[in-house]
Amino acid sequence: MPFRLKFSTKARRAIIGHALCLGESMTDSDQSGIELQYADLVTLFSKLGSGLAPNYLHGSLAGVLAAGKRMSQDDWLDWALDQMAPSATLQETHITIVQGLYFKTLAELQDEGLAFHLLLPDEDAPLVDRLVALGEWVGSFLGAFGATGVVSEIGEMPAMLQEILEDLAEIAQVDAHSGEQLASGESDFLAISEHVRLSALTVFLEYNQPQPNKADDQVVH
């Protein structure tokens, strides 16, 4: 049987609606110009003796940021290195690259032009490898998002968001066999990855609403 994912219609509409209003509710950032390529990070991680894939680290980071959490540079570096578990000592240039991943990811999530993209193998990689990497990205996103405890902090989750997370949970289950069974190959993969991208942005928008300026609430006598 060909492999297909059926996305919730309500979740689809919510994602599209949120994508259309992202430009009205987010601000631009000068950090988005940082260039970090998946293949370069694979090389760097390997050189450092880390067995972690860049898509896993990026998904985890996106999950934390989508939950409305932020980290200082030192905290992010400690958190990233804890996941990477490198066997080699990081040089200053390596630290700059790892820190750049944080700034670039946050800037893209906040970008009014919807610049956020998933850090995955490029299109020259086998389709099955890209699908597996996508599933890993989604799994790490969900794991990190849940670990922040944001859902328990705010109480009941909106039904729309529940459906989006259920869609993502299904995508996180894909494996090499699923890739071999993709009904329409490349077009299916592009549709799934775009659904994931917009879903992540929707979750980010839900938990990163601009805070009202307290100065605006003060009464001037």
Structure description:
This protein has 11 helices and no strands. The chain is mainly alpha-helical and 221 residues long. It has one domain (28-208): Four Helix Bundle (Hemerythrin (Met), subunit A), CATH 1.20.120.740. Helix 8 (159-171) runs antiparallel to helix 10. It is globular. Residues 1-5, 9-16, 18-33 and 214-221 have low confidence and may be disordered.
Mean pLDDT: 82
Oligomeric state of shown chains:
single chain
Determine the N-to-C terminus distance: 72 Å
The proportion of residues in beta strands is: under 5%
Strand element count: 0
Q: Give me the number of helical elements.
A: 11
What's the number of domains?
A: 1
User: Structural class of the secondary structure composition?
Assistant: mainly alpha
Low confidence ranges = 1-5, 9-16, 18-33, 214-221
| SSE topology string | HHHHHHHHHHH
User: What is the C-alpha radius of gyration, as a whole number of Å?
Assistant: 18 Å
What's the CATH superfamily, by name? YgfB uncharacterised protein family PF03695
- Report the helical percentage: 55-70%
**Biggest sheet details:** none
| Morphology call | globular
CATH-scheme architecture: Up-down Bundle
The top level CATH class name: Mainly Alpha
Indicate the CATH topology.
Four Helix Bundle (Hemerythrin (Met), subunit A)
